[in-house]
Structure formats: structure tokens, C-alpha cells
UniProtKB/TrEMBL annotation:
GO molecular function annotation: DNA binding; DNA-binding transcription factor activity
Pfam families the record matches: HTH_1, LysR_substrate
Source organism of this protein record: Nocardia macrotermitis
GO CC list: protein-DNA complex
Spans traversing the lipid bilayer: none
UniProt domain HTH lysR-type: residue ranges: 11-68
InterPro entries named among the record's database cross-references: LysR_HTH_N, LysR_subst-bd, WH-like_DNA-bd_sf, WH_DNA-bd_sf
Name listed for the protein in its UniProt record: HTH-type transcriptional regulator GltC
Sorted UniProt keywords: Activator, DNA-binding, Transcription, Transcription regulation
Length: 304
């Protein structure tokens, strides 16, 4: 006869999702937002897990938290089980009603104010009972959440090579200067003319920064970067104040204080629709099909 499950299982199974998401995020506030629960409730759940097991699972690190050795072992042994159970429940629920379900969808900060909301509004009209959980983040965060199963689909620029993806289009990069900059009267420019300029750029870990550095190297100079910042809108604001120039994708809403200059041999970034390595539910497959069919015309801007 099969042995009964341990008493701890009865307590821990409902709490493992809280532990799994918090361990993946390394931050209680972000985990509470993803789980859509108050931070105090999440903290109580985590304390219950630790009390039940009799070990400390998390320790503070800076403004976040990190797993202890015991926490790491628990996460490594349970993470795939939690994700498999979540996938199984989603598939069973969606198969029972393929016109409903939940899709966890991510998209980058360089897309959003117009193109992505417009696409999602059109999809909602066609499939009103499919719920969408939306995450807008930088590329590295989107990749991590696809890998860990927190997202089902994501638009990424560019798509990572280790995940399944289809190409939706390209994002062309332009030079932006302030309206009173000496180059503001130019429509296009050769990169060699910019060797003495002050630049505003992303930090080195960003994909666009890698493109920028490579583009400058091909033009024969090392750029003088006076400001490094992650947010594109903040970069545009710094450019508008005359603090430097920047290579950026075109904003979806016009910026009246900036002048756009076409770059000769301009870098372009591939826009991809990325899926995780788990079996998609009918709802996920439906959104994927819709975006593959409609997104290229909405988010790709040939010739701009």
C-alpha cells in the first residue's frame, strides 16, 4: 500500500507558488506584484514555509533578498514541479474552454504607448474572454521571465538565440540631437562626422549599447559617453536639454524638442515574438497566431 504523504505537504503545497516566484525574483515587492497579493500577505506565506520546514530560506541582500543554501536546494528541487503543475492546470482549463484562459505577455520598453496596446485592444475584441497579464520590462528581465515560466509570450528586441522565436520586423536606429544643436539642420550624416561629439547611451550590458559601440568602432572612433542611463525617455530628455546626442529607436509619440537625423549604415534591431519551452495553452497559441499575423504591419516601420 502506498505511504501517506507527509504532513508538511498539506501545509506547503498551497504556499510553494509564493516561494517559487519570490525565489525567482529575488525581491518581495516584485514577487507580490506578480502574484497580485499584498506584500504583507506574501511575507506571511514565506514565514509559514520557513516555520514548517524549520529552516531559513531567504536572507537580505541590499534592497532585495537571496536564497540561503537550504532555500536554493528547495528551489532547485521544486521549481520544475511548480511550473509543470501550473502548465497542467492551464492546459486542462483552457482545453475545457479554448475561448478563455490567461496569457502572460511581455513587451519591451521601446515599444508600447501605441503599437502594442493597439494590437492587444484588437485581440481583446476578437477574444474578449481571454485574460492578459502584461509585463513591460527591459530585455534581460523578459528573457528571465520567459525562462522561468512567468511569461508565456514576449516581444523582444532582439530575440534571444536559445528560445523559440519568429521575426515580426525591424527597429531602425536614428541619431537624435536637440533642436538648437549644430547638427539640427542635417537630414542624414556619416558616422565619421560624430567622433568629437558627447553621447548619451545605455549601460554596457544593454543590447543597443553593444550596437552603438560596434557602429562607432566601424566608423573609426571610440565614443565619448558623458551619461549612461537605462530609460530611453530619460535619454531623450537629456538630449533635449543639450547634454549630448544619442542613437535611439524612433519614439512612438513625437518628441517636439528633438531633431532626428538618418544615419548612414544605420544599425537595425530584429523584433521577435518569443515563446517559452513549455506547451502553450490554446489561449497562448491564439495570441501567438494573432500577433504573428498582425504585428508586422503595426510595429515595423520600413524606411524610417
Amino acid at each position: 500500500m502506498d505511504e501517506l504523504l507527509s504532513r508538511e505537504i498539506e501545509v506547503l503545497v498551497p504556499l510553494l507558488a509564493a516561494f517559487d516566484v519570490t525565489a525567482s525574483q529575488g525581491h518581495i515587492t516584485r514577487a507580490a506584484q506578480l502574484l497580485d497579493v499584498p506584500q504583507s500577505s506574501l511575507s506571511r506565506r514565506l514565514k509559514t514555509v520557513e516555520k514548517t520546514l524549520g529552516v531559513q530560506l531567504f536572507q537580505p541582500v541590499g534592497r532585495g533578498i537571496a536564497l540561503t543554501a537550504a532555500g536554493r536546494e528547495l528551489f532547485d528541487r521544486t521549481h520544475h514541479l511548480v511550473r509543470s503543475l501550473d502548465d497542467a492546470l492551464s492546459v486542462v482549463r483552457s482545453n475545457a474552454d479554448p475561448d478563455s484562459g490567461l496569457v502572460r505577455f511581455g513587451f519591451p520598453l521601446t515599444l508600447g504607448p501605441i503599437s502594442i496596446p493597439a494590437l492587444l485592444a484588437e485581440f481583446h475584441t476578437a477574444a474578449p474572454r481571454i485574460r492578459l497579464h502584461l509585463v513591460q520590462a527591459h530585455g534581460e528581465a523578459l528573457v528571465e521571465q520567459i525562462h522561468t515560466g512567468l511569461l508565456d509570450l514576449a516581444v523582444m528586441i532582439p530575440a534571444p538565440t536559445d528560445l523559440s522565436a519568429i521575426m515580426l520586423g525591424h527597429q531602425r536606429i536614428h541619431l537624435y540631437v536637440a533642436r538648437d544643436h549644430r547638427l539640427a539642420g542635417r537630414d542624414d550624416i556619416d558616422p565619421s562626422e560624430l567622433s568629437g561629439e558627447h553621447f548619451i547611451a545605455n549601460p554596457p550590458a544593454f543590447h543597443l549599447r553593444g550596437l552603438f559601440d560596434s557602429w562607432c568602432a566601424a566608423a573609426g572612433f571610440t565614443p565619448h559617453v558623458v551619461f549612461e542611463i537605462a530609460e530611453f525617455e530619460a535619454m531623450r530628455a537629456l538630449v533635449a536639454h543639450g547634454l549630448g546626442i544619442a542613437l535611439l529607436p524612433e519614439p512612438e509619440t513625437p518628441h517636439p524638442d528633438l531633431h532626428r537625423i538618418t544615419l548612414r549604415d544605420a544599425p537595425r534591431r530584429t523584433i521577435g515574438l518569443v515563446t517559452g519551452n513549455h506547451r502553450p495553452t490554446p489561449a497562448v497559441a491564439r495570441l501567438h497566431e494573432y500577433l504573428a499575423r498582425h504585428a508586422p504591419a503595426q510595429i515595423d516601420h520600413p524606411g524610417t
